[in-house]
């Protein structure tokens, strides 16, 4: 009986060890399953993407195709222009190519002068010389006339004293004689700086190859009276001077600008552009005046400079 009693505890001990090992095995397998599940959740087929990302890629693809089609259309349009048989379009394209090539040449030469700036400076100097010469001729040939050159050398300014009576838009008898003589002086000088049938260009009188775009006969008043009345009075005075000059020298309207338009024109500014203070009688007289404003042609690009020079140098047919 004692032997049987000793066997029982040993069996129970062996059974306990077996159960513990089984529990450990099950636990280990459970851990393995959890790890497998975790790695499976992290695994993504490299050949697949989420649906939202797939839709976004499709949208980007459509956008790229659309942009490509637009670019191809623009390319065909450019090719059509470049290859067009129309002479005017081809000339425009060639002009752009020439200008681009000219810019490339200038970039290759460090310190090359800006031809636009050089030309405009020469035009300014030419206008200054022209106005100085006109003033001298007027002073020498018309006694008693009060003429000055504007501070920026753009216009000849004739004081209203002796030209017009107060609130009258027709020149006085003495003023009419002076205006007629001014027209004569302009008539013999404008041909060197204009185009058209009366062009008489020479580098001696026009070294800067300047072309007059507009010669404005401008009327101005002092500050007395209503604005509307002064504007009407200044415009009427300018028109009176214009009419008197063209009646004495009808061919003044045959001096043309680059657009084949007469350079002589009319403008009225009322009291809006005083050159002296209206606080004194002297200032009022200076502001009550007629200006001859010389507006010169300004090239928009360098190729225009050559066009201006060619137009001046061309012998009339």
Automatic annotation (TrEMBL):
Protein keywords: Cell projection, Cilium, Coiled coil, Flagellum, Membrane, Transmembrane, Transmembrane helix
TM helices/strands, residue ranges: 21-40
Domain of life: Bacteria
Coiled coil: 54-106
SUPFAM superfamilies from the UniProt entry: OmpA-like
The keyword Plastid belongs to this UniProt entry's keyword annotation: no
Pfam families for the chain: OmpA
Residue ranges constituting the OmpA-like domain according to the UniProt record: 151-298
Keyword rRNA-binding: no
Gene Ontology CC, one term: membrane
PROSITE patterns: OMPA_2
Database matches in Gene3D superfamilies: OmpA-like domain
Name the record gives this protein: Flagellar motor protein MotB
Organism (species): Rhizobium lentis
């Amino acid at each position: 009986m004692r032997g049987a009693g000793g066997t029982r505890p040993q069996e129970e001990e062996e059974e306990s060890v077996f159960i513990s090992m089984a529990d450990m095995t099950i636990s280990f397998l459970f851990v393995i399953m959890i790890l497998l599940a975790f790695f499976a959740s992290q695994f993504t087929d490299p050949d697949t993407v989420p649906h939202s990302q797939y839709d976004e890629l499709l949208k980007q693809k459509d956008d790229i195709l659309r942009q490509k089609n637009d670019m191809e259309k623009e390319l065909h349009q450019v090719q059509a222009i470049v290859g067009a048989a129309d002479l005017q379009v081809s000339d425009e394209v060639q002009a752009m190519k020439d200008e681009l090539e000219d810019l490339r040449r200038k970039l290759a030469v460090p310190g090359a002068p800006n031809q636009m700036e050089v030309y405009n400076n020469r035009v300014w100097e030419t206008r200054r010389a022209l106005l100085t010469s006109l003033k001298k001729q007027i002073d020498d040939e018309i006694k008693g006339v009060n003429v000055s050159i504007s501070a920026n050398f753009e216009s000849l300014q004739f004081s209203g004293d002796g030209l017009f009576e107060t609130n009258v838009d027709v020149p006085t008898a003495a003023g009419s004689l002076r205006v007629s003589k001014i027209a004569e002086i302009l008539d013999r000088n404008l041909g060197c700086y204009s185009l058209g049938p009366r062009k008489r260009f020479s580098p001696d009188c026009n070294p800067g190859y300047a072309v007059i775009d507009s010669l404005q006969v401008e009327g101005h008043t002092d500050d007395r009276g209503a604005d509307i009345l002064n504007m009407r009075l200044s415009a009427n005075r300018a028109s009176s001077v214009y009419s008197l000059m063209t009646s004495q020298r009808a061919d003044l309207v045959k001096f043309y600008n680059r657009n084949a338009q007469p350079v002589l024109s009319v403008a009225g500014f009322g009291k809006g552009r005083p050159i002296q203070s209206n606080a004194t009688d002297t200032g009022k007289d200076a502001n009550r005046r007629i200006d001859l404003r010389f507006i010169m042609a300004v090239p928009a690009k360098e190729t225009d400079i050559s066009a201006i020079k060619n137009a001046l140098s061309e012998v009339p047919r």
